[in-house]
Amino acid sequence: MRDYWLSKLFFDLQSPQVAAEFRAERDRVLAKYPLEARVKQALAENDAPFLAKRTNAYLLRYYFFTIGMKDAEFVRRLNGG
Amino acid sequence: MASFAGAFASSHGPLLVREWEAVPAAQKERLTKAFRKLGRRLDAAKPDVLVVVSPDHWSNFFLDNYPAICIGVGAMNEGPPEPWMKAFPHREIPGHPGFALHLANQSMQQGFEPALSHRLRLDHGSCIPLWRMELERLPALVPMLVNSIEPPMPSLARCYEWGSLLRKAIESFPGTARIGILATGGLSHSIGEPTMGAIHEDFDRETLRLFGSSEKDLVHYLERELPARGNGSEEVRNWLVAHGAAGGRGFELVDYLPVPAVIVGCGFAAWRAQ
C-alpha cells in the first residue's frame, strides 16, 4: 500500500530547502499534506515499521536520513527495537 | 553505421561518497582500483556516446508517474541533485538527441514503449560510477532509466530484450559513432528495509558466474532469488540490459568485493565488443 501524501512529503524533503523548513517549522510543513492523524503520530514517534508499510523503502530511508537519524538507529527501529 | 563499443557495469551507492572515509583502507584501495580499471577499459573503447542504464532514485519521477523505462532524448541533462554529490564535476551533461531519438523510434517500431524525457536529473546512480572511473573524457550520455525501485518493475527477461533492442538500434544508427553502454547498480544490497545492510555474497558470486553462462539460467536464477536478496539487488536489471546488448557473450569480471561500510556487494564488469 502507498500513502500518497506521506510519500509526497518524503519525496519533497529531498529538496534541501524543504528539509531546512521542515527542521525549523515541522508543523507548518506537515500542514501542507493531508496526512491521517495516525500517520502524523507515527512521524512524531519515528514509528518506522508503521511508516514502512505505507511508503517506498528508499523514500523512508531518505526521510530518516533527512531528520538526522543514523542508519543503525533507523534499522533498529525498523526491526521494532 | 554506428558500432557497439562494448558494455560496462559498476555498482553505485550513496555511502561510496557520504561514508567514503569509513571504508577500511584496503577496501578503499581495491574499490578505487576497480573503478579506475573499469574507467581505463571504457576510455580504451573510445565511445562517442555512452548509454547509461541506471535506476531513478526518486530524482525525476514520483508516484504520479513512474515509468518502467525512460530514455533521455534531450540535448542536455542535469547533474546529480543530491546535496552530498555537490563535488561531482559536471552540473550539466550533454546528451545525444540523435541517437536517443533513433533508439526511441526503433523501440516503438519493435513494440517497446519507453517514456521519453527531454531533460533528466542524473542522480548518484549514474554519476558515482562516471565520477569514480576518472574518465579521460565524458562522452555524450543517453540516459536509460530502468525502474528497479518501485514495484511493479519490468521483468528480467524484458530487460535482457531491451539490451538486444539497444544493440540493434546502435548498429542501425547512421554514421560512424562508437556507442557504449554503462550499466550501474547492484549487486546485493538492502535499502530502507529491516534487512538494510545485508550483503548476500553467495548470491552475488553466483549471479556473476551466471553472467558467464546462459542468459536463461541467469534470468531463472534471478527470478527465483531476487525477492529474498534485498531491494537494491533489483538493480541487476541494468546489468541484464548490458548483457542483452552484448548478446549474452563476452562477460568479464573486473572485480567483486562485499563492502559492509557502504552496505553494497560491489561488482565491476565489462563485456567485450564482439
Write the layout of secondary structure elements.
The complex is a heterodimer of chains A (81) and B (274).
Chain A: H1 4-12, H2 16-24, H3 26-30, H4 37-44, H5 48-52, H6 57-66, H7 71-78
Chain B: E1 3-10, H1 15-18, H2 25-45, E2 49-54, E3 69-72, E4 76-78, E5 92-94, H3 97-109, E6 115-117, H4 124-132, E7 140-146, H5 156-171, E8 178-184, H6 201-211, H7 215-225, H8 236-245, E9 251-259, E10 264-271
Parallel strand pairs in B: 1-8, 2-7, 2-8, 3-6
Antiparallel strand pairs in B: 1-10, 3-7, 4-5, 9-10
Helix pairs in contact in B: 3-5, 5-8, 6-7
Nutshell version of this structure?
The complex is a heterodimer of chains A (about 80) and B (about 270). Chain A is mostly helical and about 80 residues long.
Description:
The complex is a heterodimer of chains A (81) and B (274). With 81 residues, chain A is mainly α. Chain A is globular. Chain A has seven helices and no strands. Chain B has 274 residues and is an alpha/beta fold. Chain B has one domain (3-271): Protocatechuate 4,5-dioxygenase, Chain B (3-Layer(aba) Sandwich). Chain B has helices at 15-18, 25-45, 97-109, 124-132, 156-171, 201-211, 215-225, 236-245, and strands spanning 3-10, 49-54, 69-72, 76-78, 92-94, 115-117, 140-146, 178-184, 251-259, 264-271. In chain B, strands 6-3-7-2-8-1-10-9 form an eight-stranded mixed beta sheet, with helices on both faces. In chain B, helix 3 (97-109) crosses helix 5, helix 5 (156-171) packs parallel to helix 8 (236-245) and helix 6 (201-211) packs antiparallel against helix 7 (215-225). The longest helix of chain B has 21 residues, at 25-45. Chain B is globular. Chain B starts with a strand and ends with a strand. Chains A and B meet through helix 1, helix 6 and helix 7 of A and loops of B.
